[in-house]
Design goal:
four-stranded mixed sheet; Aspartate Aminotransferase, domain 2; Aspartate Aminotransferase, domain 1; binds pyridoxal-5'-phosphate; 14 helices; alpha/beta; 2 domains; about 400 residues
Length: about 400
Amino acid sequence: MAYGWITKSLQTLHRANWYRQVQTIDGQGGTTVSLSGQPCLNFASNDYLGLASDPRLMTAAQAAIAAYGTGSTGSRLLSGHRLIHRELEQAIARLKGTDDAIVFSSGYLANLGTLAALVDHRDLIVADQYNHSSLQMGARLSGATVAIYDHNNLDQLQHHLAHLRSQYRRCIIVTDSVFSMDGDLCPLPEILAIAHQWDTMVLVDEAHGTGVLGRTGGGAVEQLGCRQRPMVQVGTLSKALGSLGGYVTGSAELIDFLRNRAATWIYTTGLSPADAAAARAAIAILAKEPQRLAQLATNASYLRACLAQANIQYLPSDSPIVCIPVQDAATVLNLGQHLKQLGIFASAVRPPTVPTSRLRMTVMATHTQSDIEQLVEGIKAFLKIWIKGS
Ligand SMILES: *Cc1c(COP(=O)(O)O)cnc(C)c1O
């Protein structure tokens, strides 16, 4: 009886069309992947630069395994620290134009550990409504009071601070830089100005910005001209950088503090040498091959232009993430299924991940114009059938 509620819970998920399951990709990632044996154009990955299957990353990972073995064997503060970790951290700091960086085992852990280290029950977190799950969970874990503002609503952000700031010791504004399920950016210069006014820290999550935006791939922070401003930047090595792991970057003191205080860094095993080496190789390629960044931006613009041309409405996007709003979970599942039959893989994203259902597409630097045209043709065909049927 004690576990009977799980059966009921699963039934509820099925009824709401919220039930989810894994899909097996055979072989490597890339613009074409094999989905249960069927080749599909891939518009569902975070591998923006196509680096996850780059031979140079694989060679770097293999060399690290040969040099250091597979596991890092312990926490970074005990037996788990290798030269490759330090080299990676220095490369991240150079890419982001900051003093120093610290590498976590995932971006999720970086957010949990950083928020819990920077604020506690005496403090205030002011957070965007659409922040990533790891930021929401980190806020809860910290024990701080959390005030949520409507997505990118600076008036509400101001309002919360005016009402609440004086009652708390420290305060931190927390936001994604590129919103992962929408594709738009936070108004970072304005947020930093408000933070300054209210003596408040800012944590910005560059998971979908690093290696994607900015002249050198330094992220939305670079693109929006905010590199010189004090803030806490978090990100991942698992998206544009094609590996696994998370990082925090900022002032030398911030990073030193986290090495002493972030429980999700101190009490967990160091990132594997292979993952660290692959990420470092990715950062080197990013610097050597800026054309990848340019092509990514061109492809994202091309997708938006094709959708506009076809009169297909999409959510505001300033990134390679482009979403088409769809009225409900059942319809978006049908759309996803329809595309899959055409050999196109895009994500049907539903509640509770997002408040409203949408088709989420991500373009890669390595997509061709023809790949993108096929995607848009597939969506057009679905909309024609669907409008007729409804
Ligand atoms: C993916 C993502 C993370 C988590 O990063 P992982 O390294 O995959 O754990 C954190 N924040 C945002 C905004 C993300 O999109």
